[in-house]
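Here is one record:
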Amino acid sequence: MLEWSVGSPSDPVDRWSVPVPLSRRALVSTLPAAALAAMALPLRARAAAGPAAAGEATGAAHTRLIDNTVAVFAGTRESNARLEVRAKLTSIAATARSRLTAMDRAGQGELFQGLALGTSDPNLNTSFQYLYEIALATRTPDGGTPSGLHGDTGVQRRVIDGLIWLHEHAYGDQSKGYYGNWFTWEIGISTHVSKMLALLADELAAYRPDLAATYVASMDAYLRNGKDGDVDLDSRFHTGANLADITTNRVLQGAVLGDDARITKALADQLTILATIDPYELRHGVTDGFYADGSFIQHASVAYTGSYGKGLLTRVVQTVKMLDGTGYTPDDQLVRVAQGWVVDGFAPLIFEGWLMEIVKGRGVSRPATGYADAAEVVEAVVGLSAHATGTDATALKGYVAYLRQTSKAVLDPSAFVSPVSIAAYADILADASIPAGDLGPAERHVAFNAMDRTVHRRPGYAFALARSSSRISRYEYMSGENLLPWFQGDGAHHLYLSGQDQTQAFGIDYLTAVPPQRLAGVTAPVETRRTIPELYGTLWYDNPERGFTSSSEAQNTYVYFPRSTHPFSGGAALGPYGVAGFVQSDDVAYAAKRAGDLPEDFVVYRNADATKSWFLFDDEIVVLAAGVGDAAGRAVTTTLDTRIAAPSDTLTLTGRLRGGAPWSGTGTASLAWLRYANATRAASVGYVFLDGPPPTVTLDTVTRSRRAVRLANPDTPVTKQLFAVTVERAAGAPHASMAYALVPNATESQLGGYARHPLAVLANTTRLQAVAHRGLRITALNAFAPGGHHAGRLSVRGPGSVILRETHDGGVAVAVSDPTTERDTVSLVIRGRGMRAVAVDDGVRVGRVPGGTRIVVTTRRAYGRSFTATLR
């Protein structure tokens, strides 16, 4: 997780949902901050009391903690005797031997060949990493394949001598250190060193008993974003996954030094990460962490479950293992919180073993993604299942088996961090008594409104939508990663089809092959933009006099992860159905430059205009766009969808014109529907054009380098067939509206059926967008402006999202939300006969009015969540 900067009441179970197999009693993913603060009080009191109050059992607890840590990373004799673990052991030994060879060949100013020290913090961090990898091999029981390194005190002393050399020549002088990336000095190096101190505790005591204390003192001195050499919970650098890393390191340091106060203080600090973020009652001003709806944010405003979120999950599970039997915290506290994260935060985002791109920040531009990201979550779930009990343990193990069955990539357990996890994973897969199952229903709609993300799932597909707002960043660029990010939070979507190898449809090759302004779902101006390195010749905008340094708040706000400027982004969820809305806006950098608040040479880009809604049903996703154009007079492209395919794949494009004539191929035409089919992959997507200008269909072959999206990527050319269906607006053209439906896995017969009008567009303006699905008896809308709005049976005042479904018994079910998060109440009237409330959420009031039924929802402090009511 190297970087250049950091940021600083649950929905009821809906009536269509399958109950989550994990018991709700056991889950505390929405644990309030006050409850965790109460848990931390005994730890803080123990830390403040000092060593005299630690008790006789302290030494044994420290020994147990170190032994547990060694087992986590090196395995045990029992785990390492397993055949399934052999590949991991071979890899550990081979890596260590290659590092020893590099040490033997080191030149002047190097500890390892090729890693010159003195000015490169990545080289210094890597040098510590190499020492750790050697130390790990000396503590890894061999199992059935002796490496010759296990227990080799000579090699261990070489590692210790290496630590001494690095401290004397490259690390110990704090006046010369702390160049480059802050993360290297406060987290990266400390993580390697802290684990080495645990792995080599006995040999350090025998050979250099002073070295551990020397290193801990230096690590404290480098904690410059902390306070007095310790964590500062008010620091924007000490939040979320970063705080988990720092505190875990300090726990290990305390165990090695026998410093109980360090351990208990670090654990008390780490507990703050586990509290559900309440945006209305922030603790220490921190917005980083998990929210009640399962969202995860890092860097203050970046949707980040798929990178920092999984890093936090991994660290917490490792802490659970390290603390096992030590008595520092009740056994199930951390387990129960992490279980909730898995169920509410991760499981909806993993489709057939693929972790979705919409929550990866700059990590989306890395080659190893998707299936590899999910494997990290799998290891965490394996670890949790060993500490859970009863039905919770069974459900977690069943989820591991389910991911193995549904993934199109074979998970390589040798990539797991822990040999113990590999053995446990093999046991789960071999246990026929464990029923494989997802942690949520196959048909579900998940509104991650706290991070402006929506996931809509059916057995045949998953639809993932990325939005942004005045609360959430449009994208993340940093450290030369994600170089072309500008439109990734502007309604960009990923439509994953079941049964497919997603590396052939998405991942790094999709981001490489598809031009940034042609991402699926995006409305963008037709113009050339330059990357940060191209603009400024560095990886950031450097202007210290105006507050722009590599990790400054100004850099974060305007360069790395700028937010949008409009508050409307969110939607309502009613069982497995949903509606989402988004008003596209300029970002904060453009607004600040226009206001004269940024330097003259700081480059900003203006966005195009669009107001959009997504109506998410069973067989189709209906999209409405209004006010599409550009106030600056530029040409604008709206990309309804973009898909990639291998050059050898057989693709066919067929459709019907509005007059009924057949159509095929590419070009611009007044189409009623279009079908994209990849015969090689047995994949298809249909497009039904409900209203708007004629679409343009293109199919090209493109070749681009993966380095175009990330400087550290290999210069690997990617050649793909690139299919797109777009609506083009010429420069100076008036703003337009359009309505269309995406139909996953569509047949031509199915697409032809839309001529019978099961879908009706009730309104499509920048004030109101509404759709009726006659087959499902659903009416849904987004109102974007003040005043009254009317669609079908619904009348609503002011901004809001509403979805209504008529039930077979003559009643209705309705869900309401405030996507702006700024309204105290949202009110609506359902016209027709008066109805009474059968069941309503807290905060919902129902009353009869002439000509209908009035519903008033108290949305104050709800942060965009849905409120539901059943009326009859």
About this structure: Residues 86-104 form the longest helix (19 residues).
